[in-house]
Queue: 2 jobs
Job 1
Amino acid sequence: MRVSGNYWFLLSSLILRDFRVRYRNMSLGVFWSLLNPLVMMGVLTFIFTKVLRSDDHPNFHVFVLCGLIPFNFFALGWVSGTISIVANASLVKRVMFPREMVPISTVLANGLHLLIQIGLLLAVALVSGYTVNRWWALLPLVFALEVAFVCGLSLASAAFDVYFRDIRYVVESANMLLFWLVPIFYSFTVIPPKFHFLYQYNPVAAVVLACRNILLEAKAPPESLLVKLAAVSLAVLLAGLWIFSRLRRRFADYL
Amino acid sequence: MISVLVENVSKIYSRRPRQFLHSAVSGWLRRGHRELFHALKNVSFQLGEGESLALIGPNGAGKSTLLSVVAGLSWPEEGTVEVYGRMAAVLELGSGFHPDLTGAENVRMNAALLGLSRRKTNELFDRMVDFSGIGDFIEQPLRTYSMGMTMRLAFSVAIHVEPEILLIDEVLAAGDQAFQARCMDRMLALKREGRAILCASHVASTLRRICHRALWLDHGRVVRQGPLEEVLAAYEEASSAPAAG
């Protein structure tokens, strides 16, 4: 039977396949990973510092990039994870391998873009005058928890998408709403305290807040925030794995 | 030693598609009359080590469904399937292949899917490519391949992962004569090594060379099971009889 080393070979092959297929027929390749957040950063900075003038954060572009990068990964990872089983129908119907690998590898392939974009975020922060501090060491943990969260959500939504193909539109709509409900272009302090729980228990919002603590304020994120982030993310991952394992038996009949 | 044990397996589909909410609701309102379709009904057989079983029957008899149930791709509503040993299934031309990847990339991807380690894949890679006879095209994207080339590559990977149980569905018909001959040699070698083979085909001459037993399916039921020549003769007689069934 399979040993764990083979699992890793399979997972990395699937991630590589995703990455290769996406970039093989593009002339700009990975550059797109950088262009999208930079353009969004420019537009949002223009609107909120020149048009609306609602925020007086001295480095609004870094502030907004801290929001955009975790959100972008969440939105793209979740959508592509959701459609991954249906998109790989021929594989799932015809080849026996652990089906969990499909949404997980899709999310992790998006994780490669996340890595590139985190690099961009750090570069922009350094160029804008922020310096390396010891809390940067927490960034891998914070983003790893976000990846776990998106994997869990995608496992569940990908399994449902096999039975009800409308799920992908639900996910796309949810992403549009979350763009406003995650503090991308506003700060935590302007949120009325009675709504704070909505943000602290939302892992994407929690990652954004933690990023700002670390990069902009050079301090550790509140322990309570990290605990909530870890608890929600790991719970969602386990729930996703469980839902997936319950629904996968009939995949072949519905694809 | 038993390799595959299938007992009283039934695969049941509900005929009504439930893709839409309104049909789900109306289906719930009329849930008394659910129309069920048995793709397989009470199928039992066993396959021992070194044995090879032919699946025969008309189109839509349930051969492919049975193969996918044995492969673990599809779950039977009733009955049990037990499999002892590593299985490789070639159920469709180039399943799991991606048209934008090169032949070489697809070979490695497919080997990983079939459960090989990185080291084993590197070890077997040259043999897989040599056997397929693809040559220099191996670095070209798969979409430039002909049907026959794709099939040869898929088959090469499947038989080189050293399966203890090999499932084959109609795929041998594609390649050219020379490749078919090589496949046949390779399958006979696998058989001599004591691997179990389950093979669905309409080509009696292929089956005669590989298999010694046969299972005749029709409308999801086992019509007859036994020594290949006996079952083939009965099947051919029934198929040539005018409007018998």
Job 2
Amino acid sequence: MAKKLSNRRKFLKNSAALAGGLAAGATQSANGQMPEKYIKGSDDLVAYGQRSSFETAVRESHGRPHSPDAFGLVKHVATPIQESVGVITPSALHYVATTRGHYVPDIDPNAHQLMIHGMVDRPLSFTLQDLKRFPSVTRLHFVECAANRPSIGAKTITESHGLTSCAEWTGVLLSTLLKEAGVKGSASWIIAEGAEEVKGTSSIPMAKAMEDSLVAYGMNGEAVRPQQGYPLRLMVPGFEGIFNVKWLRRIKAVDKYWMTYNDYGHLRQNDVDAALGYTIGPKSVITFPSSGQQLPDKGFYEISGLAWSGGGAIRRVEVSTDGGKKWKDAQFVGTPQRMAHTRFTLPWTWDGSESMLLSRCTDELGKVQPTRVQVAKFFGIPVDPSYRVPGRDNSIQTWRVASDGSVHNAYS
Amino acid sequence: MRILSLLSLVMLLHGGFAHAQSTFGIGSTPSEAQLNAWDIDISPTGEGLPSGRGNAKEGVEIFANKCIACHGNEAVGGLAPRLLKADVGPNADPWEFGKILPIRSPYAPTIWDFINRGMPLGQEGTLSANEVYALTAYLLNINGVIPEDAVMDAQSLPKVKMPNVENWAPLPDYKPGMDRLEGYPY
């Protein structure tokens, strides 16, 4: 075995030397198809791959100061969704939000347990191995932060819409685990707690816990990443980000709203704000072309974007290229999934004149993504600079394509 | 108990019923020690508060030793969030005091819970119950909620009347497929 390995090493080394020789540029194939450079092989690259060094999309801290500062006060890191294709956010680019700074626990999965107790017939502890014995589900779901919204100051879509991401999550339905523990009919809420330093805890209505919440150990085909809650994350599809408790270690069934510290942080004084702050409304945004990008010339482009809703699957996306006067139905790429990013496209030939690009979506409940003006009109409030959409802001984003092909945030 | 439910399941399967399996017999019963150590949450009405006691005078000294470095003198001016309400005049709505836990929270036990689970930064879980009661009393006192000599314990803390106790909007009763807000088209 040792000999075999050493032969393989030697082979890799020789291959690298060969590649190095080519990189020096002494030889090029006659038909011009031989690449001039090779990526230097290594055991690490063989074991776990990396993207090309030419790919530069990175996450950015949301707001100031830059992350992570010494005190850990930066709590949000945004996804460059203008660089995304398809509907899955790569795990390494998934947005991150934490209750208090960037303290990511380094959890040994073999020592980790999930305890379910409170108003149950039999309190139970599960190891990771236990959880993987249960029937599993794999589902696409977005997670979105409460603060994700169009804004006057945003220069790119990362700044305005980067606090949403979508991954394929694998795990056990929470209803399966609650039934296993014999949850009592009189339990009306659960509280879910993480294992990190502040033991972040959120209250979730039992109806949602039993409907479609899941305890995820998998993300995009491998284990959940540490920044996303390794080894266990609670997914509460369609509810705002903070409900999706990371580093999950404890679930307690209770008989009332527990108003944890996390819950307190999102309390509202007014009923409308509270109601609209719970789940994410129908929302969409054009990711190409979007602010900060540059169209090289007039001619054909495929407008592309993402739509999602806490109310279920997206049923329709419409796109306007003239500021909302005329709308065309966009096409879906693939089949829309419930509480998941849905990719839409529309063919477009740009004539070189200033154009205002907008998208709006409709979800399976028939709810339609509004403009800011429509929301203000519904509540009878004037749209002045202080106006903000109540609750989670799902209003339409407009991009302005200038005649030189540069793309801008129309609200700036 | 678990064996019995498995037995009945086997009988159901043999009977040819297409019933979904109700339990799987997976997982273990947590020990009393694990339950006690992990069950740290305190309800808004004080369920879960342990024995112990403290007042604001004791809290001053603990705050000076363990909290000032981040929260600043008088709970203002540090890198960590301020803990003293904003001076917005005598008739202000309590929400105008700012997002300050020991004044905005509708329930005092929530303050105890958060200090206990999350403080001090980097040394979470090291405060004794007496220290947490004293710090809670200190923060309630500097925000004008309780007098300096009021003793906080499992009986008195839930009875503290916070200015926002009836000044917050409850979440709607969640039902699958419900409107976010009744009659709202968006």
